[in-house]
Design brief:
heterodimer; A: 315 residues; alpha/beta; three-stranded mixed sheet; B: 313 residues; six-stranded mixed sheet; three-stranded antiparallel sheet; metal-binding (chain A); Aspartoacylase (chain A); cytoplasm (chain A); EC 3.5.1.15 (chain A); AstE_AspA_cat (chain A)
Amino acid sequence: MSSSSCNNSACLNEARRVAIFGGTHGNEMSGVTLVNLWVKNSAEIQRKGVETKPFITNPKAVEKCTRYVDTDLNRAFTPENLSAPGGDNLPYEVQRAQEINRIFGPKESPDAYDVIFDLHNTTSNMGCTLILESSKDHFNLQMMHYIKKAIAPASCLVLLNEHPLLKYSTSRSVAKHPVGLEVGPQPQGVLRSNIFEAMRVILKHALDFIELFNEGMEFPPCTVEAFRVLERIDYPRDANGNIIAMVHPNLQDCDWEPLNPGDPMFQTFDGKTIRYHGSGTVYPTFINEAAYYEKQQAFVTTRREALVASAIRKI
Amino acid sequence: MMEPVSLPPLSRVAICGGTHGNEMSGVYMVREMQKQKVHRTESVSITTVLSNPRAVDACRRYMETDLNRCFTDALLSAPITDSTPYELRRARELNAQLGPKGSPEAVDLLCDLHNTTANMGVCLIFYSLDWITLHIYNYIQSKMTSAPVRAIQMDLPISEAYSLESVGKHGIGKSIEVGPQPTGVTRADIFNMMKEAVDLTLEWLQKLNSGSTFEGGEVEAYTLVKSVDYPRDPTTNDITAAIHPQLQDNDFKLLKPGDPIFLSFSGETVKHEGEELYPLFVNECAYYEKKIAFHLAKKVTLTFPSISVRKED
């Protein structure tokens, strides 16, 4: 990333090439629908000075309305996968990852796309969530600040996943500035109008921000409240690995609300309560996401953190 | 006032889950009952079955074809060949185990557990207008406070009935449908409602067999009139609108002409035309492929007689 400090602002290159990914998980319908719409008619996503490309990342999964065919595309962009030989013998999503890296990357090179928005839905009650992969990405921080202000009083929270072990190799990580957009709750395979329109509005403001930045607007320093991922909590299981409890009714749908030591966390199938016994208050999210049962995750814990963004302007 | 009815004890019931492999309440309910070795109450023997084990393992609705459409008389008796889909074969096995459909060997009551992504609360679905399912519905509705309890009566003769619950004796059976719950997810509140409905069903059977008389009366139910598909692009057949926010989650709320039903991606509202009807299965995820955005039903009042078990001399 080319940047330099001038007059206390971080000076960054214009964001000329932007992509909007839908269907990274083929059954998360808002992104699939929006991208298909924009592939047919891109008027809504055009901005002066920006080339914005809508793209379906996992077409086979979209066709089958399933999360993935062989392996999760949104975990597939590891250095090993991106350089793996084997062509057609590779799992479908690894082939897709290599193809996407060719078109929109290469990842970590100067030729990579400037910004990629990756559209997702979740069965969790997360509302509109922007996912940040680095607390030092001032461009993204400023964008998220801009979006939050633009949609107020409606809310849009920021989830920071910078955890060395829990961080994963996403489709969007190919770009210089990866932005995850997660909107829920929505069942897999279902299109809810309110969820669809909320995602659409966030993208509108995101593209407006990019246009303003490219035109020369300077964005002063700001603070962005975020939730930093701490740890993944699995379901209680028996000796054979079978789940023996469900997210407790008191915790279900309470994404972003404080979970205190002693609060109910799980309810066993025969009605007993299992409580949270952490050392302090945490803010859980991704509570009861359908796709995470197989990833051994009932929810993740986060802590609140104020992230500071430097002033930015284009070079 | 209808004549009281007396019948032999109902001593065999089947509880089925995982007929659709990604409708999780029933899957976990059956597994828990099997783990607790629930095979009888005092007077009722209980068979618990995971209907579609391969689909449960894969956490999919079905592998090749919808198991819950495989139980018509015609499909159950068609010849099996190498190309017969998995679910048709499985339907035969279930029919042999719990039926045969239409025979005196069939279980007295078959209870099939389902979830829906639609906001339908607890909903019982049955074919026959037999007094047993109406009484169970009435009993559950009078005792459950945690969710609204409603019923859909399917207007099909038993021979044409296509779903698993029609395998019970005289077609006596019901689906218990609880929603809203996403596929692949288990919500504790939804599980608890399902468990309460199953427990009340077994409780009612137990009371009947022990000699209780259940008074007759009246209940309201819904019968399907027609279904409505999503607006589609005439060339590509792609959906061009979503269920309107004012209809979304409003199952069983009377839909009047002029009420919004779809909001197109380009911002136009599509309105309901025709008679006042009740929408159900609004935005059920499995119905996109069946070209159903929602069903429309009318309300009916069903009367039933008092019922008790025939005393053996």
